[in-house]
Design a protein that fits this description.
By secondary structure, the chain is an alpha/beta fold. Helices cover about 35% and strands about 20% of the residues. Helix 9 crosses helix 10 (about 325-330).
Length: about 350
Amino acid sequence: MSYIVGFGEIMLRLSSIDNERLFQSLKLNATFGGVEANICVLASILGLNSRYITMLPDNAIGHKVEELLLSHKVDTSAIAWGGKRLGIYFVDKGNNYRTSNIIYDREHSSISEASAKDFDWDKVFDNASYFHVSGVTPALTQSAADLTLYAVKEAKKRNIKVSCDINHRKKLWKYGKKIEEIMPEIVKYSDIVFANEYDAIKILGVESDINVDSNISEEDYKIIMDKLISKYSLEIVITTRREIINSNHNNISALLYNNKNLYKSKKYNITNIVDRIGTGDSFAAGILSGLNMFKDYQYILEFATAAFCIKHTIPGDWNLTTKEEVISLMESYEKLDVKR
């Protein structure tokens, strides 16, 4: 019985209602979310065993987080308890040509001040198959970056595959370090990386004369990713593609490269987007779950991209879809009808 294990921060999410501006109403929608928690929830719903690792404040809010994770059968047994508070983020939800905006209130959150001694690492990695981290938690504080690096080193010592999503959040890197000073060392211990060509060159130090500030060809993409895989001894690199028409209308697809073959997903034309937040996490969950369930890279990529697509239709951070729904979409896209 193997586990997908995610490590990072979960927050209280407060968002505007319907198409209102953030404080236009006296009411806000309250939910919880965070990159790795979002991944663990979907992996569990898809039928995998998942375990979420974080530090939560020992108060009613922290225990509500655990209660909701447990309701989706996510293992919370290795969560550490302590610290001052749960981080909060506010979502001013966009519509049409008005973009969404996020305001963070996460200073002095529990996980941002946690250290390696707060966790039982044997319990964290018990029967783990994949350990997933992102560039979000290392962006909070130096101690959070150190903790993330410690965690991936522990995973590698135990021969557990490490998955890392670069996930650059420019608003978060405020403690004196830049993302390109921190993430390369974490990626050094990774097997699977979610990154695009910009991340590879600007953050992970791949040397190339290719201009990544605009669209690039598939051949240039392969050249860059070959160098990234070689530099960090990676197994696969995965990239999502998003063409933004407006806040309600996006075209999405994805690429997977394993240093031999480039796999390309179907392209989904998504209109009437309900919520974009958590869509990339759904994609990552689809990849990690797919690697546990399937053998064929093309099938895994299509599965993950369908999960990525479905999340755009669901409010909140968590993708409350099923394996059957994901497979149905990936096999029937462009032939959609009511199931009777």
